[in-house]
Amino acid sequence: MWDGLGFFGFSDTKLPRLKGKEVTWFTPLLSWKNTPLAIIGFFVASYIILKEADKLGLIKSQTIDL
């Protein structure tokens, strides 16, 4: 019976943790399953940040006439 905990899944990426290997922030990037997704996410986030950075310092005004 499965109790709903994510630790008891079928992912083989958790096996080194069972052997005592320390987990760091860099650990997901060492997996070939997570690396393409991480790279795509990095480029998407960088693109959004660069596009929005151009708008910094602009004064926007809005008037509402009734």
Summary, kept brief:
35% of the residues lie in helices and 0% in strands. By secondary structure, the protein is an all-alpha fold.
Number of helices: 2
The termini sit apart by 64 Å
Helix-strand sequence: HH
Largest sheet: none
Shape: elongated
**Coarse structural class:** mainly alpha
Mean pLDDT: 79
Count all strands and give the number: 0
CA radius of gyration: 22 Å
State the helicity in percent bands. Answer: 25-40%
Beta-strand content estimate: under 5%
Unreliable residue stretches:
none
List the helices and strands and how they pair.
Elements: H1 15-18, H2 35-53
Structural write-up:
The chain is an all-alpha fold and 66 residues long. It has a domain at 27-55. Helices cover 35% and strands 0% of the residues. It is built from 2 helices and no strands. It has helices at residues 15-18, 35-53. It is elongated. The model has no long low-confidence stretch (mean pLDDT 79).
Keywords:
66 residues, mainly alpha, single chain, 2 helices, elongated
